[in-house]
């Protein structure tokens, strides 16, 4: 591999902002949310023509904190900081970048842990299920507030890529380009199966209390830990795990008990523990359901080509060869449907060893493709 | 870009209707597609396997799909392109017959260019005991990507065996068309094909 393209700097100190929406929101499920807040961050400057905005959609466990860091904690680096910043592939010297925490999240936007105005108590189990379509609709309302009529780019990886794709269908006039990275046009039975095991881990935790654990002063941490462990297994490739952990023993010998022995066990427990300390279980349940439900072709008899017929954007689709959660073959399904519709599309299949997580990793070829694509997007100075 | 390559571009452009849909297999840095977009207002895509060339295509503003041609063209529907091009690519593929078949499945017409191994300079180098190295074949025997070199006569025979109808053929040496003894005096061959079936 050639030298990693890590040129460019940090956007520096950032701070989250909050937008409040009083206009009731009708969800795909039929439920309505009367009022809600969205946490978001922006980097760079919206130009006078307002044609240089990029929306970054997050995946399962991330947030609006995409780049930079908070003044009170230099270690609080945004989740896609390697991709976004001055001189980086998503160059904040040219683009105005918006990160938003999705509705139902647990990083500042209204979600199950938020206080429900009608009751004065957390929403808990009563927080409705939200879909990718709902998120896109809500993101568009944020765009309205920010006076962004049309995004130059909507981009994301994994579940974030599904939102980018949905944007081109729900609001074809409001997005010029979509970056659809490590995506799938819908989940397979195997994908749903992994999500269901994660949900079962949470809902069968005695501390779950049917989703109203806030009132009991507890958190279903055991369930969250296991859910995260399962997720992590699917984010990494077999080779990446072998490379990173192999069969290495923590203490150099077998102990003939059930404590941590292999390094991989230690890693998964650590990741699970860390996750259970900051992530809301009800949010996790809802986000995995949003993943399961996503299927733009469902209203077209499963015909993805017909489903994407309304899209007008240009597309950059990127997949990673070692990703088995959303394999390259899944991205090629999207590419085929875009080609069938004679849309502008470029597809890069990055030979990367990291598995699904590759979309978050530093990889010279991946970054250079994104940089080259974005450099060709004309925006007013 | 070498002068002979430019000549090949101009010949290809002269055959392509304005506004056509074009697929360029093994499109390299996308320069042919870009040229055709500028000269003929075509729309289209390249197919390329190499990471560096793919990035060059993106930088050139050319639509490109990363794929190994040896695996076929599954993403591309039958008859979905007016022209499918194999520009200096055919000699470097293994599944020659399968790829030509795929080309003429996806495209209404195919355009193939290849270095003529029957060119007298190549013959002379072999006569003198060495593998040919030239502008059209700029590789040593040990680092060449070319695995299926052929002469114009070989390719004519190939077309006859596979019932491919040759709509046009232009042979070029140093940018100039060659009309006399093309298999001896021509460095580069450019064919426009139609599936004879």
Give a quick summary of the entry.
The complex is a heterodimer of chains A (381) and B (197). Helices cover 32% and strands 16% of the residues of chain A. Chain A has helices at residues 132-145, 159-170, 189-203, 221-235, 238-244, 263-278, 281-293, 304-307, 328-340, 364-375, and strands spanning 17-21, 25-26, 32-33, 36-43, 53-57, 84-85, 90-91, 96-100, 115-116, 121-122, 151-157, 175-181, 314-320, 345-350.
Describe the structure in your own words.
- The complex is a heterodimer of chains A (381) and B (197).
- Chain A has 381 residues and is of the alpha/beta class.
- Helix content of chain A is 32%, strand content 16%.
- Chain A contains ten helices and 14 strands.
- In chain A, strand 9 and strand 10 (121-122) form a beta hairpin.
- In chain A, helix 3 (189-203) runs antiparallel to helix 4, helix 3 (189-203) packs antiparallel against helix 7 (281-293) and helix 4 crosses helix 6.
- Chain A is globular, with a radius of gyration of 21 Å.
- The mean pLDDT of chain A is 96.
- Chain B has 197 residues and is α/β, with parallel strands linked by helices.
- Helix content of chain B is 33%, strand content 25%.
- Chain B has seven helices and eight strands, in the order αβαβαββαβααββαβ.
- In chain B, strands 3-2-1-4-5-8-6-7 form an eight-stranded mixed beta sheet, with helices on both faces.
- The longest helix of chain B has 13 residues, at 3-15.
- Chain B is globular and about 45 Å long.
Numbering strands along the chain, what is their spatial order in the largest sheet of chain B? 3-2-1-4-5-8-6-7
Q: Strand-and-helix sequence of chain B, N→C? A: HEHEHEEHEHHEEHE
> How many runs of DSSP E, i.e. beta strands of chain B?
8
Helix percentage of chain A? 25-40%
Largest sheet of chain B: 8 strands, mixed
What is the beta-strand fraction of chain A? 15-25%
Overall 3D form of chain A: globular
For this structure, the quaternary state is heterodimer
Question: How far is the N terminus from the C terminus of chain B?
Answer: 36 Å
Biggest sheet of chain A, strands in spatial order?
A: 1-4-8-5-11-12-13-14
How many DSSP helices of chain A? 10
- Beta-strand fraction estimate of chain B: 25-35%
């Amino acid at each position: 591999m050639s030298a990693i393209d890590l040129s460019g700097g940090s956007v520096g100190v950032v701070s989250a902002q909050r937008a409040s929406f009083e206009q009731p929101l009708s969800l795909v499920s039929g439920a309505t949310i009367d009022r809600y807040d969205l946490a978001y961050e922006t980097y760079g400057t919206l130009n006078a023509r307002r044609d240089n905005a990029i929306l970054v959609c997050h995946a399962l466990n991330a947030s609006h904190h995409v780049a930079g860091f908070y003044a009170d904690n230099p270690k609080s680096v945004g989740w896609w900081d390697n991709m976004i910043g001055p001189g980086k592939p998503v160059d904040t010297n040219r683009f105005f970048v918006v990160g938003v925490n999705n509705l139902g999240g647990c990083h500042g936007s209204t979600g199950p842990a938020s206080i429900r105005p009608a009751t004065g108590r957390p929403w808990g189990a009563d927080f409705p299920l939200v879909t990718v379509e709902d998120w896109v609709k809500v993101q568009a309302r944020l765009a309205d507030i920010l006076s962004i009529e049309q995004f130059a780019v909507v981009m994301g990886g994994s579940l974030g890529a599904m939102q980018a794709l949905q944007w081109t269908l729900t609001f074809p006039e409001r997005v010029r380009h979509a970056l659809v990275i490590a995506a799938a046009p819908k989940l397979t039975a195997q994908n749903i199966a992994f999500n269901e095991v994660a949900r079962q881990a949470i809902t069968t935790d005695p501390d779950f209390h049917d989703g109203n654990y806030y009132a009991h002063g507890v958190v279903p941490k055991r369930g969250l830990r296991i859910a995260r462990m399962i997720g992590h297994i699917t984010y990494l490739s077999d080779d990446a795990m072998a490379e990173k952990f192999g069969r290495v023993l923590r203490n150099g010998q077998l102990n003939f008990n059930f404590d941590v022995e292999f390094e991989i066990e230690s890693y998964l427990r650590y990741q699970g523990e860390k996750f259970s300390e900051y992530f809301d279980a009800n949010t996790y349940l809802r986000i995995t359901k949003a993943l399961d439900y996503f299927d733009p072709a469902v209203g077209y008899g499963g015909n993805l080509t017909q489903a994407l017929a309304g899209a007008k954007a240009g597309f950059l689709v990127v997949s990673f060869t070692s990703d088995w959660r959303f394999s390259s073959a899944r991205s090629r399904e999207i590419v085929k449907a875009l080609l069938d519709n004679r849309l502008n599309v470029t597809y890069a299949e990055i030979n990367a060893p990291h598995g699904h997580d590759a979309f978050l990793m530093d990889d010279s070829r991946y970054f250079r493709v994104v940089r080259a694509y974005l450099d060709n997007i004309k925006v007013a100075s | 870009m070498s002068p002979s390559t430019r000549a090949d571009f101009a010949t290809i452009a002269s055959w392509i209707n304005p506004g056509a849909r074009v697929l360029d297999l093994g499109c390299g840095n996308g320069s042919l597609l870009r040229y055709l977009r500028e000269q003929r207002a075509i729309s289209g895509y390249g197919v390329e396997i190499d990471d560096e060339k793919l990035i060059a295509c993106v930088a050139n503003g050319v639509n490109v799909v990363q794929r190994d041609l040896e695996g076929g063209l599954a993403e591309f529907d039958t008859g979905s392109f007016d022209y499918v091009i194999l520009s200096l690519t055919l000699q470097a593929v293994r599944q020659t017959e399968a790829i030509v078949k795929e080309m003429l499945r996806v495209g209404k017409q195919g355009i193939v260019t290849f270095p003529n191994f029957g060119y007298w300079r190549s013959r002379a180098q072999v006569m003198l005991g060495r593998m040919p190295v030239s502008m059209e074949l700029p590789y040593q025997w040990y680092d060449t990507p070319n695995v299926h070199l052929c002469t114009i006569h070989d390719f004519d025979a190939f077309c006859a065996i596979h019932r491919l109808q040759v709509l046009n053929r232009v042979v070029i040496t140093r940018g100039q068309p060659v009309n006399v003894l093309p298999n001896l005096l021509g460095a580069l061959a450019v064919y426009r094909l139609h599936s004879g079936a």
